[in-house]
Design goal:
The chain is mostly beta strands. It is about 10% helix and about 35% strand. The chain has 3 helices and 16 strands. The strands form 3 sheets. The protein has a 7-stranded antiparallel β-sheet with strand order 7-9-1-2-11-10-16, with no helix packed on it. The radius of gyration is 18 Å and the shape is globular.
Length: about 260
């Protein structure tokens, strides 16, 4: 009985706080973003290190992680939808996603529900690891935690927020835009962004396939995003990434 009441409560909150609902009533509601600033400890102290996210509140979002490319093998197979209630964000996770682009992102069919208070440090929701536990368990931040065990300082803002870089450091950002407006690559049209703190090295360990490698994400002096990919024989290759916006995606550096 209590479980049923809880589900009804959060579904009502999701409906009432949805921007489209208020738009129909003639109110202007600012777009909100849920930001997850990465840390490698449970108190979110020291330098921000890891993979951060800024996710648009409201839309149904799937395939988080796919925008980084084939070298980044940690991609969620789940779909997520977020809403904000006062100073908290609610996150619905849906594991049974329909094919053909018709994602089920509403109703009682969610598999998990998370809630976080603004300004708190928490274990990062499984935006990247959902459905890929084997890969994400063996994907480790260099000198840090497995990717699915990161912590995040959570914040709610009216513009996307990409971490806390110092004046001398850049941040590499991957942004997925709304496919309904494929030619609109302004940040106001983003679905979500992933970012890598400067010179972040991630180790991908696939011992079963003997395919161990690392990627270091950097921005050069011209603010060009690069990936330095090294195999288990310490053979490395640095790739410069295109800055143009294509397929509703964009890669860039900010400082």
């Amino acid at each position: 009985m209590y479980k049923f009441i809880f589900k009804i409560f959060i579904l009502i909150n999701f409906f009432i706080l949805n921007n489209n609902y208020f738009s129909c009533l003639g109110f202007t509601v600012p777009q909100l973003y849920a930001n997850f600033i990465p840390y490698q400890n449970e108190k979110c102290t020291g330098e921000s290190v890891g993979v951060g996210l800024s996710i648009t509140v409201g839309p149904c979002i799937t395939n988080i992680g796919s925008i980084v490319g084939s070298n980044f093998e940690v991609k969620s197979t789940s779909t997520f939808s977020l809403f904000v209630n006062a100073l908290r964000v609610g996150i619905f996770q849906y594991d049974k996603v329909k094919s053909g682009g018709d994602e089920m992102c509403f109703g009682r069919h969610f598999s998990k529900f998370y809630t976080y208070k603004n300004g708190t440090c928490n274990l990062t929701p499984p935006f990247l690891s959902a459905g890929n536990d084997l890969i994400s368990n063996s994907t480790i931040i260099n000198n840090g935690l497995p990717l699915n065990q990161q912590y995040s300082l959570f914040s709610i803002t009216e513009t996307p927020f990409f971490g806390l870089p110092s004046d001398s450091m850049n941040t590499q950002v991957y942004t997925q835009f709304n496919d309904e407006n494929p030619n609109n690559c302004s940040i106001s049209n983003q679905l979500y962004s992933m970012y890598f703190t400067n010179n972040l090295e991630i180790n991908f360990n696939d011992n079963e396939q003997n395919n161990n490698y690392s990627i270091t994400y950097s921005c050069d002096s011209n603010n060009q995003p690069t990936q330095n990919i090294c195999n288990n024989n310490n053979q490395c290759n640095t790739e410069e990434l295109p800055l143009d916006c294509s397929n509703s995606q964009s890669i860039y550096c900010i400082s």
